[in-house]
Amino acid sequence: MHQLIAALISGGPVITDGAWGTQMQARGLPSGECPDAWNLSHPDVVEEIPRAYVQAGSRVILTNTFRGNRIALEAAGLADRVHELNLAGAAISRRAAGDKASVFACIGPGGKMLCMGEISPEELRDVFAQQANALAEGGAHAIVIETMGDLAEATLAVEAARTTGLPIVACMCFDSGADRDRTMMGVTPEQAAQGLSEAGADVIGANCGQGIDGYIAIGRRLVAACDLPVWIKANAGIPKVIDGNIVYETTPEQFASRAAELVDAGVSFIGGCCGTSPEFIAALSQRLTPASP
C-alpha cells in the first residue's frame, strides 16, 4: 500500500470533500460555462470551495479539474491551456489545504467513447497522461479518477496516471440497471474492483449517480471484491426538478446518519458528490472521527 494512503487510513475512516460543480454554480458559474476556466479567471472564488471543505472537516480535498483534459476543454476553446488550467487547479487546492488536508487531484471522463471508435486507446491514454502530469507538477498529493462508466476507459486513465508516481484512486459511477448497481456500460462492482486493481489503482471506489442509501451495498461489494481501500462519494439523493430548478432533497443530517453503515461495510474514504456541501461534510465530521492527514 502506498505510504500516503496507509498514513491517511491508519486512524480510521477519512472524510473527503463534497460537491464542486453545484458549489461553483452557487458562486455564480453560469450554466454551460467551463468550470475549469475559473482556475485562471476566478481563482479566489474557486479557492473558497476547498477552503470551506477543510474548515468543515475534510482531510482530503479534490481540485477543480474534472473537465481538464484536452478533449473536454476543446469544446470550450481551451484545448491549448490544459497544462495551465490543471497546474492552477492543483495550486488552488494546495493553498486551501495548507497542512490540514491532502490534495487528490480530479480527472473525469475523456469525453469521447472508446466503444464507438471515437478515439483510440493510445490517444485516450495520452490525453489522461497529459492532464495527470500537469496535476502532479502543480503539487497534487494523489490523483482521483472519477465518475467513470466504461471500465476500459478507467483502466487507461489509471495506467496514464501511474506515470506520475502518485497514488491513484479510481472510481466508477453506478447508476444503471434494475438495482442501480451497474455503470452505464453494465460494469458491476466486482468487475470494477478486479479491473481497477489489476490496472494498478491504490484505492478503488464509486461516486455520483445515486444517493448514500444505494452506495452502502455497493461499498460493501467493493470491499469484499478486493484488498484495496474503498472510496465512496454519494450524491445528496436523486435530484428533482422543482419550478425549473434542480433540487437535492437529502439533508446533511440524513446523509450523515448513514455514514456509520459505510464504515461498518469497510469503506475507508467517505465524502459527497453532487448536491452536497460543506454542511454535509461538517455533519459527517460530527459522526465520524477523521484520520490525521
Could you describe the 3D structure shown?
By secondary structure, this protein is of the alpha/beta class. It has a single domain (3-287), classed as Homocysteine-binding-like domain (TIM Barrel). Helix content is 44%, strand content 16%. The protein is built from 13 helices and ten strands. The chain has helices spanning 3-9, 21-26, 38-41, 43-56, 70-74, 82-97, 121-137, 151-161, 189-199, 212-225, 252-257, 259-265, 278-287; strands spanning 14-15, 60-61, 102-107, 142-148, 168-172, 203-211, 230-235, 240-242, 245-247, 269-272. The strands form two sheets. Strands 1-10-7-6-5-4-3-2 form an eight-stranded parallel β-sheet. Helix 9 links the parallel strand 5 and strand 6 (203-211). Helix 4 (43-56) packs parallel to helix 13 and helix 6 packs across helix 7. The chain is globular, with a radius of gyration of 17 Å.
